[in-house]
Amino acid sequence: MIIKGIAASPGKALGKVMIMQEIPKADPEQKRTVSKEEAISSVDSSILELSETMKKLIDQYHTQGEHIKATLMETHYTMLRDRLFHDGIFKSIGEGYSAPAAVARSVEEQCRLLDSLGDSLIRERIDDFRDIGNQLICQIIGQNYPDLSNLKEEVILVARNLPPSLLANSNSKKIAGLLLGNGSRTSHVSILASNMGIPTVVGCGDISALENGKRIYLDAVAGQVTYNITADEIAFAKKEIEKYHDRMLKLQMFTQTAGCTADGVRVHVLGNIMDTSTTDKLIQDGADGVGLFRTEFLYMNRDNLPSEDEQFAIYKNIAEKLGSKPLTVRTMDIGGDKEVKSLSLPSEANPFLGYRAIRICLDKTDILTDQLRAALRASIYGNVKIMFPMISNMDELDRALEIFEQVKKELLHDNLPFDKNVQVGIMVEVPSVAVMANQYIQKIDFFSIGSNDLTQYTLAVDRLNEKISNLYDYFNPGVLTLIANIIHICNHAGKICSLCGEMAADKLALPLLLGFGLRNLSVNPSSILMVKNLLSMCDTNKLGVLAQKALEMESAGQVRSMVQNYLSDQYQSWL
Ligand code: PEP
Ligand code: MG
């Protein structure tokens, strides 16, 4: 029997089900048997104790460089300290409810509020709120919160929802897989699982057929799970897992080799990061550096902006680890789907077309100045590059470069050392820049094509809207024509052209990008070895013609089938 879901973190596992122990819940109708003052004081002291525990964990995660876990815990900390949440609790206590019931009522009130906002990303924070509420209830009633930190045997964890804090504190070596009834690819628990390397399938719906201790086969590549498993299915699963591990092992040989095509053309394969935690993996896999540091994650889920010194410490740390390999620091790309609380940005009807990224930085120049100072100061510890996102006209680039020069002057004046030759570039992700690439490249050192945004802006398709996701397609010949143009112009100018959107790790897109002349790719850390493997099967002598043909096609579908038909059997076996 098969249950289908969404593959949220790749891998395959055969193992015993461990149904997550139910988290103690409070009866929201329970009346208090103690005085109002006593109930309030028990809530106050429990919030304080829980806050202290969280603060310690945040520090611990930061010290260990586990910034995703730290960010998650910081979100929880902020939620726990939320005024509205507290007001709700105290109001219910005033109405005669017990302390745990009052917490449960206030949590549900907050969740209803989040739900009513109708934003899918905000809605995903509902699970985080329930997680906090349950922790607080356990603290009040003195009951242990479930603990995954000392699992004795390897299991596939099954739950309708898994509080992200529980996963963050788990012993991931004992979790062979994770299966959730709810959740999406972008929920916190999925991001964490992927960061921790746990094969994960989410959004499975009804999972009541799964029983504790029974064996299941979790295929987090296809996004499904087999239960009531027969002997034949077990044998099949074992073979599949072996095949998967063989592949992963085969890919290991690419840790030592540089990205290179079958005809000997060197292709630089860099990684995209959003905190320091994946840098080691990237170096271990022999990446050529960091092609995109999404620094906006340093600004998210906190009440204040990161200071210059705080940023400097982070950039310095990564730059030192990378040595002579580049660390491309993209200045804050907030807005669109990424929110920064401390900026109190008003909501907009069309956030992706609104006040975001460089537009904010050129308006609130202190933010940009702090960031540029931090990145420039870190430049003497490695090979730092700076990149501006979302440039849509020349005035923006001129102004950003002007501020960059001004910051350098100030650092000289302050006697703070920096590398005078730090390279500066832009993301090409707006069509107005793509078509005039020739003018822009004259003023900077490199381009990085942001195919995620370039696709949405060229096709007028919101990249987050599931209803029209079939229209979001970078194989569209219009998008490909722009990409080919950017690469051609940049190469012709003798400057570096990279591509750092998801397209860079797309197995079908890779031959086309090489055919257009692209020699630098920046991909998610988990794709570095696979991309090097695929490169070794490509012959650039033949790809120019293939890429040219793609530009003459009428539709994305036609381009895809043409590439598919062209690929060797060996390459196809990795698709
Ligand atoms: C892009 O737009 O392709 C890109 C890499 O930036 P982000 O996905 O962070 O918008
Ligand atoms: Mg972008």
Low-confidence stretches: none
- For the residues shown, what is the average pLDDT? 91
CATH superfamily of the largest domain: Phosphoenolpyruvate-binding domains
Number of domains: 3
CATH architecture of the largest domain: Alpha-Beta Barrel
At the first level of CATH, the class of the largest domain is: Alpha Beta
| Number of β-strand runs | 16
Rounded Rg: 25 Å
Total helices: the number is 23
Helix percentage range: 40-55%
Beta strand % = 5-15%
Q: Helices and strands: which structural class?
A: alpha/beta
Q: Choose one word for the global shape.
A: globular
| End-to-end gap | 26 Å
Provide the list of bound ligands, each named once: phosphoenolpyruvate, magnesium ion
Largest sheet: 8 strands, mixed
Instruction: Kindly report the spatial arrangement of strands forming the biggest sheet.
Output: 1-8-7-3-4-5-6-2
Tell me the CATH topology of the largest domain. Answer: TIM Barrel
Q: What can you see in these coordinates?
A:
It is a single chain. By secondary structure, the chain is of the alpha/beta class. The protein has three domains: 2-14 and 155-229, 3-Layer(bba) Sandwich (Glucose Oxidase, domain 1), CATH 3.50.30; 36-141, Orthogonal Bundle (Enzyme I, Chain A, domain 2); 263-572, Alpha-Beta Barrel (TIM Barrel). The protein has helices at 36-63, 67-80, 83-94, 99-116, 120-123, 125-141, 164-168, 188-196, 231-252, 279-284, 308-322, 358-363, 365-378, 394-413, 431-435, 437-441, 451-459, 477-492, 509-515, 528-535, 540-551, 556-566, 569-572, and strands at 2-4, 6-9, 12-19, 155-159, 175-180, 200-202, 215-219, 224-226, 268-273, 290-294, 326-330, 383-388, 423-428, 446-449, 496-499, 520-523. Helix 1 packs antiparallel against helix 2. The longest helix has 28 residues, at 36-63. Phosphoenolpyruvate binds next to strand 10 and helix 17.
